[in-house]
Amino acid sequence: MDAVEIKESRADVALLVATLICIASSSSIAHEYASRFLDMTVAFGAVFNIRAFSCAAHAVGLAAGFGTAAFIKRASVSHLRGTRALGAFFLSQIGLSAIFYAAFAFHAEPVIVALQIPIAALSALFIATMLHYAAPLPKSTVLICISLCIGIPAFIAQGVFGALETAPLAAAIIAHVGLLCVGLVCGSRFFRHQTANAPLKAESAAYGAQLDVENSSNSQRALIQPWFLVWVVVFTYGAAFGFYHVIPLGLPTPASFGVTAPVIRISSNLLGAGLATALLISSFSSGPLVTSVIWNKFYRLVFPLAVLAGLLIPFTQAQGYLLSITCSETALYYFDMIIALGCIVICKTLHADATSVFAHAFFARSSGFLAGNIAGAIAHEICLLLNELISCVGIIAFILLFLVTFNTNGEKYAKTVWGILPKEDPKSRFDRKLHERCLQLAKEFQLTEREAQTLELLAQNKRPKEISNDLVLSVATIRTYVQGIYTKIDVHSHDELLKEIEKE
Q1: Does 220 score more than 60 pLDDT?
Q2: Less Cβ crowding at N or C end of the chain, within 10 Å?
């Protein structure tokens, strides 16, 4: 790929990430803004925590959006990838947001709660749709994209709109609508670049074509029926996080701590997003991105953080539950990042449609989160949340998460995601390791795209004549590439090159 193509591809990635950030932020902003102003309300002669219903409505919308993307036909999803569909989405979000903020002016709490369902559903649907273009990206770019697409919406919703909490309602409306307009502009430019056959479109189209030609029967069957163990693990963790999300709403913040509950919620959320991003980069910056490594990080980091969040609640009351909520938010953000990485590995291994893979995974996560929200809301309404009861909740969460984490045969089956990925025989494993090593050398010694292709064929003991047939190039051109490889890697023969490749 020459310099012009690299620059254009980076511009496309930047536009894609900006669009995803604006889509995700729209839903988060509506939910967080509602959570700060909704409190207790009287209905049917009883007192209810309307904030808990707001959380449930947001979760319903996410589950509905990802569920729609997961189960509708692939041809229907492809119609959502374009300037017209994206324009309709952003315009509808602007209209829904206008009604949403108008409901605040009239104190129409049921409307505020209900509107979060379509806002979240549309956001989830279009996030899954746009992720089709992210799956083919290289690992380093993927890590940055995931960090930005999850971390920045948290900063916008919690930090920027947290600062607008005391500002006039018009300021929040202008900021929200302005963000949606930025997303519309970035998304439109992105799709115009795709129409002009930019690199991301070519890579995404190749993935779709391979799915149709090579994996249509197996992959489609796999994507329509998510594997039970994967679904149970993701659903259960989502339920735990949903429960943790609602329960603190009913826990009083001691006046002696000197800060308000919204400040604690905002601080813990921002800290959680920052820590999760740091964990993601440090966990996967080196080494290959494979499912066994992802699972290893999952049970070594997400599991203890999630359990710790529940166990710390009764011990952190004096500090306003800041440490407990921070652990929960860190685990949740890192969990979402881990799911996204796992989906990308599956997409690249199966050459599957990223929208369907992401949608199924986050549908399980969102469904679990909704179930946890409902359970937490019920517990809040019928039980007095004393420290003894909260301790029991932490113990139950520990037992439940322990069972689903360590009773799924761990890394052995995680290598194939419990059967989703094809099992790897010794030859396939050797070929994969060889491919990864050649990519590593190509990056380390800055080989060109053609030199990298030639290097991999040389690693397979192919001679220039065979390579010329494979790449449909002249033997003289291949010899030029070979000489360039020898010079850059500093070897003088085919045997020396093979020894360099065999080094780990």
Answers
A1: no
A2: C
